[in-house]
Specification:
- By secondary structure, this protein is an alpha/beta fold.
- The chain has helices spanning 19-30, 61-68, 83-90, 126-142, 168-185, 206-217, 232-243, 260-264, 271-285; strands at 35-39, 74-78, 101-105, 110-113, 118-120, 149-152, 158-161, 189-193, 196-200, 221-226, 248-253, 267-269.
């Protein structure tokens, strides 16, 4: 599916390449008070960096969100990160105008609400801790440990990053099958991403999280912006909502590493900078 990229006017709203996307944009702008804005964090609101602990939201992201959030039903940051980490790295806490913001962390297993400033979550899956304990030995056996990095996600998931390896793609491919086996032994699933393989409990993904929250707030239109394979379930959720009469707009935060989202998106923007421009443009067109 082809998608329209950013206009030369940084303040213009991109024109969706599909009829469904144009209907979604029209619904967002005509009834903003019933709109849900869903956004991934890494690669969408925050630039991708080699060390995920150093990731921070685009410098203008919070201001753009604060301008948009009061005009819509809700803004939901949907991320594989722990909710509290995304809040800290995003700088979302205590910002005037972000009262309509929630962070759905760990693919919706955790939830941070700006109104209360608290995180609610069930108990962690026990398989995550046991899989984490086995990871160093597995990486050593595979011979792909050098340059890889293990990221612990609050006991709810664990990820292996290969971006800093000598050959990131080769390390990624070498680890796919061994990590799938490790995950299966401990009742987990593997979520591939941009030079990262994440082990997490089954049953929750960004699509489930987005769909449940859209239904909870009674959203009458939905925008979702993402950049990676983990965002595809959210795209599918928007497609399902469209079939049941809820207009939607699919936005790809452009990346040359992942082409699947570009093919399915209604609009492609230039990474987090383009996402911020889009958020500003939407806020400027809403009463």
């Amino acid at each position: 599916m082809a998608s329209h990229t950013d206009s030369t006017d940084p303040n213009a709203t991109p024109t969706p390449a599909t009829q469904a996307g144009r209907e979604g944009l029209d619904a967002l702008l005509s009834r903003p008070g019933k709109a849900l804005i869903g956004l991934d964090f890494d690669g969408t609101l925050a630039p991708i960096v080699a060390d995920p602990e150093q990731a921070r939201a685009h410098p203008d992201a919070v201001a753009a969100l604060a301008a948009l959030a009061p005009k819509v039903a809700a803004v939901a940051v949907v991320t594989g990160r722990p909710a509290g980490v995304a809040v800290r790295h995003g700088g979302f806490a205590g910002v005037p105008g972000l009262e309509h913001l929630v962070v759905l962390g760990h693919y919706g297993a955790e939830r941070w609400d700006a109104v209360t400033g608290t995180v609610s979550a069930p108990a962690p899956h026990p398989g995550v801790a046991t899989a984490r304990a086995e990871l160093p030995g597995l990486l050593d056996r595979v011979g792909a440990w050098q340059g890889t990095w293990i990221e612990e996600k609050g006991g709810r998931a664990v990820a292996v990053h290969t971006r800093r390896a000598a050959d990131p793609q080769a390390a990624f491919e070498a680890l796919r099958e061994p990590l799938a086996g490790l995950a299966a032994r401990h009742g987990l699933v593997v979520e591939p991403g941009r030079m990262v393989l994440e082990l997490r409990p089954p049953g929750m993904d960004k699509g489930v999280a987005l769909m449940e929250y859209a239904r909870e707030i009674g959203a009458e239109s939905v925008l979702y912006a993402g950049d990676d394979l983990g965002d595809l379930p959210a795209y599918t959720a928007v497609d399902k909502l469209r079939t049941t009469g809820t207009p939607g707009l699919l936005v790809c935060s452009g990346s040359d590493e992942v082409v699947e989202l570009r093919r399915r998106a209604d609009v492609v923007v230039d990474g987090p900078t383009g996402v911020v421009r889009l958020l500003r443009a939407l806020a400027g067109r809403m009463p």
